Amino acid sequence: GCFLLWLLPSILRAQASPETRPSSPLCQQSPTKVSCKGVGLRKFPKELGQGIKYLELSNNFIQNLSGSNMPGFGQLEYLDVCFNQLEAVSATTLAQLPRLRSLLLGSNHLDRNYLANGEAFHLLRNIEVLDLSVNNLESHMASWYISNLTSLRVLDLSRNMMTKLLAGTFRNSPWLRQLDLSNNYIMEIQEGAFEPLEDLEVLNLALNSLLCISGFSLTQLRVLNLSHNALELFSSQEGAEPYLLRVLDLSHNRLLSFPELPRAHDLTHLNLSNNLIASLLPGSPYPRDFVLLYKEMQRFNRTVHPVAALTQVADLDLSNNRLELFPFSFFHSLGS
Known about the structure:
Layout: H1 2-16, E1 28-29, E2 33-35, E3 54-56, E4 64-65, E5 78-80, E6 88-89, H2 91-94, E7 102-104, H3 114-121, E8 129-131, H4 139-145, E9 154-156, E10 164-165, E11 178-180, E12 188-189, E13 202-204, E14 212-216, E15 223-225, E16 233-236, E17 247-249, E18 269-271, E19 315-317, H5 328-333
Parallel strand pairs: 2-3, 3-5, 4-6, 5-7, 7-8, 8-9, 9-11, 10-12, 11-13, 13-15, 14-16, 15-17, 17-18, 18-19
Antiparallel strand pairs: 1-2
């Protein structure tokens, strides 16, 4: 009995040794997919088998992605390192992941070493899905990280420390289709910031600090969320090209009037709840107790019907506003 107890520590060490086992006994592994979620890893598991395409390493304690030799990961397409302590990513490591398409790095510390990390990210030219949420990134840091990612389709920058969108942020990401910028502190969108994004379909700017959207020109958007800002004005750009917008959320803002959307013919869902809208009458004057804070808001005094083009709207939410009158002409203009 004593002899077996004496051997027990050696047996346990042999079982746990990466040299004797190709993978952690706590990881779940199939021929092309490995999940090591929440198993207490403190470094990248280089000992995993060949041919892996999907690797989940979330909820661990990994601080860096580095290593001169990472055999077996040349086929990797999906890597999830969310909810770790990641602060350093080496170019040597990323260079060995030529087929990587999805990289999830949310809830880490990528604000540290961002210059070196961003330089390493320049090697990720095939990345299509990138999650950088909850990394304490400021505006210039986020711009640097994505500055050379020419294949991006989906980008999550939510819950960071961004205060403005710089004009050149998305200059090299023309194929972006979905962009999440929610839960930041964005107060300013510089002119031309979205201009390169001609394929953008879904944009989330909820839970920021925007005061005014003037000359909205993203005609190709399908879904736009601007809820929980401080918007007092939302106006679209004048022109002949119709908007493809189907879902628009302007709830929980400070809008004084029904937004004019003369070319939003495809709009089906419009949320205007929890604003300060007092009248739906075309060209109606503002109530005396409202003060126009921006000269540009005077544009709304013209007598264009605010809902003349909203013939496809199926869901309209005007709850929690300051409305006292619903004119018949308003409902007559709605198609459903």
